[in-house]
Amino acid sequence: MRFTGRVLNDAELRYHAAEKEVIAVLRVLQVFQTLLEGCRLEVYTRHSVFKWILQSKTADGRCVPWGVILSHWDITVRKVQRDEDGLTAIMGAGITPRDHLDEVTESLIPAKGHVRKPPLVSVEMLDDTYQGIVLSFDGAAKTSTRRGSCGCILWQLPGWEVLEARGFVLDDVSVNDPEYNGLLRGVHMALDRQVENLVVMGDSRIVVQQVHGLINCHPPNLQMHLAKCEVQKGKFRK
């Protein structure tokens, strides 16, 4: 058994947990390249992002170089739920002959986890067979003029059919105001269509985390938006 790791830089600290898992695997492949070269690798992960990066033809941003590196390896991805005792069980399993290592490890990986799933959801985490409505939103503001805009789209999955897409020009707004406006207006669009189950996605980590109660919301203008979001959340089944 071998161990490795490194300190995340400032930007990586803000990555989603799924992205940090990818960074960890890339670190292993880099440090132990001579040991792993030519071997079939099995990666157990709690998220679908890793498999998506390996197979996606529409990846962009930092996912592109990650996918290029991973494509050179024979990797099988197996998704599991997080389990606090999983690593402990593996560490306490004793020394196992190399011929039976995969068999023993397979039996130690939990089929079901005991820890609540992370509340943040991204499109990559949705199963390929998911059927339902997805709301995407975004917004931007120019602080010098206090003007901005926001947009929201309702998608029907599978198939990514656009049900409705709207954009709005905003006055007297500051940072994060447009994102909240995009979220709220998109939620109203969904309610007008009598949608009961809604998946919401947006690239504003601050807004998403505040809505989930993961970080505090101090600015009065954002507190007002957050209160409206709490009211609207109660109108959906989930």
Q: What do you see in this structure?
A:
This protein has 238 residues and is α/β, with parallel strands linked by helices. It folds into two domains: 10-108, no CATH class; 126-233, Nucleotidyltransferase, domain 5, CATH 3.30.420.10. The protein is 37% helix and 21% strand. It is built from ten helices and six strands, in the order H-H-H-E-H-H-E-H-H-E-E-E-H-E-H-H. The protein has helices spanning 10-13, 17-31, 33-36, 49-55, 63-70, 86-91, 101-108, 177-192, 205-211, 220-233, and strands at residues 40-45, 74-79, 132-142, 147-157, 161-171, 198-202. It has a four-stranded mixed beta sheet with strand order 5-4-3-6, with helices on one face. Strands 1-2 form a two-stranded parallel ribbon. Helix 8 packs parallel to helix 10 (220-233). The protein is elongated and about 60 Å long. Residues 113-118 have low confidence and may be disordered. GO terms for molecular function: nucleic acid binding; RNA-directed DNA polymerase activity; RNA-DNA hybrid ribonuclease activity. InterPro entries: DNA/RNA_pol_sf, Retrovirus_Pol_polyprotein, RNaseH-like_sf, RNaseH_domain, RNaseH_sf, RT_RNaseH. Residues 2-72 form the Reverse transcriptase RNase H-like domain. Keywords: Endonuclease, Hydrolase, Nuclease, Nucleotidyltransferase, RNA-directed DNA polymerase, Transferase. Residues 137-228 form the RNase H type-1 domain.
